[in-house]
């Protein structure tokens, strides 16, 4: 598996490529070109300058995140065909610059959601936090504005300002869409783009709903093993895969991550992985923690072991981190805690690999003795 780091581009990230290249074993990025709104074609020139800029630092750009799906596609509106064609063109353009995987989501309106972006951890650091009760009495627009105000001046993924003006109008349209309808629209989208992915050698990786349950009564399709079985069944192709985000799925304690990883890993459908830990604080209430198993409620050793043992050979990255040591960055995307996360994941992986090798050697010796 290849270790990577999310990077939003020179103009939109407090972390530099010079810093990223110094993180042990980090060979590339899960990149983002944040200038494009959902539905727009990502132009070759912009992709070229982003990718070449990164390559100068010896880093690869084989994964691109947040190629957002236009709401008209999710709503199944007649205009969706034009947006699907744009998406196909974006896939072609990205693949012509060496991109092999695209992370996206099919969540209506909201991308990830938190009710506090700087919740005190108790040791002087802070982290992203969610409490379902905090949503009571809040309209979606109020929540979005609250998130925007706490974002340290950075644009948060999924909360791009140009989307805010249309928020209420779009929410109104979703009143007519239930889970089944949304799944139908999802199938239509995948049928439109997966053949293009196959032609170009690109894999799609759907990101789970975050948190792993519906919010504001809007249907969501991707937050359990059963959901993902349905999704990969919509179009049966290795190009129709998953971005296994442990923190998103793990926000619901009912999701058994090592077992989910083995299930989809054996099928060869995990394209990439976001690995982080969460601390459950009550019903639909959690805080993000450091990556260390004992700091949260996910067993990171078992998660990494499941990835390794299921033959996962895609891209992996630390996901969000806490804000440490006075760093000022986009919430969740500072340098320090994500770099610490990589160091820890590297350590787990080295031990898992060596254990596997020793076990193999023992079996081999016992079979010839
Ligand atoms: Mn994630």
* CATH architecture verdict: Alpha-Beta Barrel
Query: What name goes with the CATH superfamily?
Result: Divalent-metal-dependent TIM barrel enzymes
Q: Tell me the CATH topology.
A: TIM Barrel
Mean pLDDT, as a whole number? 93
One letter per element, helices H and strands E, the order comes to EHEHEHHEEEHHHHEHEHHEEEHEH
**What is the CATH class?**
Alpha Beta
In the sheet with the most strands, the strands line up as 1-2-3-4-7-8-9-12
Morphology call: globular
Number of helices: 13
The helix/strand class is alpha/beta
Largest sheet: 8 strands, parallel, barrel
Instruction: Evaluate the radius of gyration.
Output: 20 Å
Measured by DSSP, the beta-strand proportion falls in 15-25%
**Ends: how far apart?**
34 Å
Count the strands? 12
> Which compounds are bound in this model?
manganese (II) ion
* Percent range of helical residues: 40-55%
User: Unreliable stretches, pLDDT < 50, 5 or more residues?
Assistant: none
> Any idea how many domains?
1
């Amino acid at each position: 598996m290849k270790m990577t780091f999310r990077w939003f581009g020179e103009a939109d990230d407090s972390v530099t490529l010079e810093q990223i290249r110094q993180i042990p074993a980090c060979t590339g990025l899960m990149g983002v070109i944040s200038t494009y709104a959902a539905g727009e074609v990502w132009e070759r020139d912009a992709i070229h300058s982003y990718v070449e800029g990164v390559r100068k630092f010896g880093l690869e750009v084989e994964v691109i995140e947040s190629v957002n799906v236009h709401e008209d596609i999710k709503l199944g509106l007649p205009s969706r065909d034009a947006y699907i064609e744009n998406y196909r063109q974006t896939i072609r353009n990205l693949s012509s610059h060496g991109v092999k995987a695209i992370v996206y989501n099919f969540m209506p309106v909201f991308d990830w959601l938190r009710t506090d972006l700087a919740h005190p951890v108790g040791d002087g650091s802070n982290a992203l936090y969610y409490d379902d009760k905090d949503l009571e009495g809040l309209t979606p627009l109020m929540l979005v504005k609250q998130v925007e105000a706490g974002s340290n001046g950075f644009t948060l993924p999924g909360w791009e300002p140009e989307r805010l003006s249309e928020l209420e109008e779009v929410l109104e349209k979703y009143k007519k869409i239930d889970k089944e309808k949304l799944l139908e629209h999802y199938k239509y989208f995948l049928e439109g783009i997966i053949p293009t992915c196959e032609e170009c050698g690109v894999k799609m990786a759907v990101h789970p709903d975050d948190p792993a349950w519906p919010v504001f009564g809007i249907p969501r399709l991707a937050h359990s093993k059963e959901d993902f079985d349905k999704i990969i069944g919509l179009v049966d192709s290795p190009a129709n895969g998953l971005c296994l985000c442990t923190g998103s799925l793990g926000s619901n304690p009912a999701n058994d991550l090592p077992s989910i990883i083995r299930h989809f890993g054996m099928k060869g459908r995990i394209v990439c992985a976001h690995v982080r830990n969460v601390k459950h604080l009550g019903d639909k209430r959690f805080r993000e923690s450091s990556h260390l198993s004992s700091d949260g409620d996910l067993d990171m050793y078992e998660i990494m072991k499941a990835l390794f043992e299921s033959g996962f050979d895609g891209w992996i990255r630390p996901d969000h981190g806490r804000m440490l040591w006075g760093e000022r960055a986009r919430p969740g995307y500072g340098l320090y805690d994500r770099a610490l996360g990589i160091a820890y994941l590297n350590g787990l992986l080295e031990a898992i690999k060596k254990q596997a090798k020793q076990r193999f050697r023992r079996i081999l010796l016992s079979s010839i003795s």
